[in-house]
Amino acid sequence: MRKVNTVNMEEFAWSSPKGKFVGAGKEISEELGRKPQSTDLNERHPFDVEICRIPPGKTPYPYHSHSAQWEFYHVISGSGAVRHKDGTTPIETGDAFIFKPGEPHQIMNDRKEDLILYVVADNPIGESCHYPDSNKWVVRSPEHRLIRSEALDYYDGEE
What is the pLDDT averaged over residues 24-33? Predict the structure, then answer.
């Protein structure tokens, strides 16, 4: 058994170059030994668990969908909104929701306190993502590359 205490874990933060996309998180699965680049399922783990913290007025990622990955979310504290193919839905503490492959989504914190979520993803090998707002794809095989017709930066067309 491997055990970690998330209170003692270091939080990592990210921001897009112009600051439109901001978030912070704790990669629980990696702290438990997950090796995300491995193709050995015993090292890769069948799912990835993260605590995601979204500051007030921010969104951590552009609107996107996954080709093969499922994502489960559980709101631990705070409130905000989720953008999806049918519009926007408010979320609050205690809400749980899931996106299956092909369903575009984006989490937004439109409130004045941090929004904190558990995120569980199955992270399948060979996964790709589509970004409808900027019409680009991220392709992870054979290498991690964002493309339209040539390689692109992750935030290209988003800010």
Answer: 96
DSSP structural state of residue 31: H
Q: Supply 114's token pair.
A: 């941090």
**pLDDT per position as a tens digit, 117-159:** 999 999 888 889 999 999 998 887 656 777 776 777 889 888 8
How far the first Cα of the chain sits from its last, in Å, is 43
Q: Taking phi first (over 0 means left), then psi (-120 to 50 degrees means alpha), and beta for anything else, what does residue 81 get?
A: beta
Q: What is the pTM of this model?
A: 0.88
Which residues have a Cβ under 8 Å from the Cβ of 81 and sit 6 or more positions away? Answer: 88, 89, 90, 91, 107, 108, 110
Q: Is the backbone peptide bond immediately before 132 cis, with ω within 30 degrees of 0? A: no
Looking from the CA of 53 toward its CB, the CA atoms found within 13 Å total 13
Element holding 44 (H helix, E strand): helix 41-44
Q: Is the dihedral of CA 28, 29, 34, 35 positive or negative?
A: negative
Distance, in Å, from the CA atom of 44 to the CA atom of 30, rounded to the nearest integer, reads 9
The CA distance from 33 to 2, in Å, is: 8
